[in-house]
Amino acid sequence: MSEKILHVGDADFDSAVLQSSEPVLVDFWAEWCGPCKMIAPALDELAEAYDGKAKIVKVNVDHSRATAMKYHVRSIPMLLLFKNGQVQATQIGAVGKAQIGKMIESALN
């Protein structure tokens, strides 16, 4: 697992994500979620590739229920891309590294 990926919860979500000066891709996940584990290596690689330009943050839905409810997370993995505190893009379900990369790129342009 990349040390470039930040794990946040209900208490630090606002400061880590909404107040970030760079775009933030949030991965809503859980330990028991197979598809979440499938996309984890791609997220690790993208965190390295976009270091300094965008952040990747993981939110465990079992531990951070308030945040998951606030963003209407009903199935996981669910990726939300935030820019300037606003949701810019949403992806539900496991997708490949290229598609996740395109989400991040869209926020950088």
Can you summarize this structure?
The chain has 109 residues and is of the alpha/beta class. The chain has helices at residues 13-18, 34-49, 65-70, 97-108; strands spanning 5-8, 24-29, 55-60, 78-83, 86-92.
What does this structure look like?
By secondary structure, the chain is α/β, with parallel strands linked by helices. It has a single domain (6-107), classed as Glutaredoxin (3-Layer(aba) Sandwich). The chain is 37% helix and 27% strand. It has helices at 13-18, 34-49, 65-70, 97-108; strands at residues 5-8, 24-29, 55-60, 78-83, 86-92. The chain has a 5-stranded mixed sheet. The mean pLDDT is 96. Disulfide bonds join 33-36. GO terms for molecular function: protein-disulfide reductase activity.
Q: Structural class, from helix and strand content?
A: alpha/beta
Mean pLDDT: 96
Quickly count the domains. Answer: 1
Which word captures the global form?
A: globular
Q: Spell out the helices and strands N to C.
A: EHEHEHEEH
The strand order across the widest sheet is 1-3-2-4-5
Tell me, what is the CATH class?
Alpha Beta
> Which regions are unreliable across 5 or more consecutive residues at pLDDT < 50?
none
Query: What level of helicity do the residues show?
Result: 25-40%
